[in-house]
Each structure stands twice: as structure tokens, then as C-alpha cells.
Amino acid sequence: MALEHASPLQPIRLLSDGALPPDAVSVSLIKSAELQLLRVVLRTGSALPAHWVAGECTIQCLTGTAQLITPGKQLDLEAGDVVLVPKQQPHEVRSQHEDSVLLVTIRLGT
Which domains does the chain have, with CATH numbers? Predict the structure, then answer.
């Protein structure tokens, strides 16, 4: 079954009443020819393993804290922080101390 994405001009609620439901999972919210938007849920002690994406991406920490780890650098992200990850930059993301919700935007087109 194909994943249903939001349509243009369709609002998306990222967090219900500002809180993360206990059963919340990571989900792709929007995907077009040029853009993908994901809500990534990282539970305490979990991580997105090292990877890279072809286009630039942003990672915005919506709740909790997370660590963005690249070769030679670690950034601590708190709720409200956003960072640009260059295209093809290897990185991993960890949530060591608390549950975290991230909004990830990936540029797919050129």
C-alpha cells in the first residue's frame, strides 16, 4: 500500500496540542518532485544511523533535544533549533536524553 502524503494547501498537524502522543512514529508528510518533508520521532536512546541524502536538507528540532553528528563535528539541537545539512554530507542523529521530534525537509530536485 502506498504511503498517503498531504496534498498542496492541505494543513498538517505536526504535534497534537504541542505534545507527542505515546504511539507517534516517524512519517513522511509531503513528497513532491522537488521536496520531501518528514516528521521524525526519536525515542530516548535511539538514533538514525549514519547516512546521507543527495540534496540539501534541514533538521528542525520541534521537541526534546537531539545530536547531529557529522565526521568531525557534533551539534546539540534543542527545541526551536534548525540546521542546514549540505548535500551528500554524511550524518547521523541521536536522541540520548529524551524523546525528540524533528521536522526534516529534503530538497530532492536540482
Answer: 27-107 (2.60.120.10)
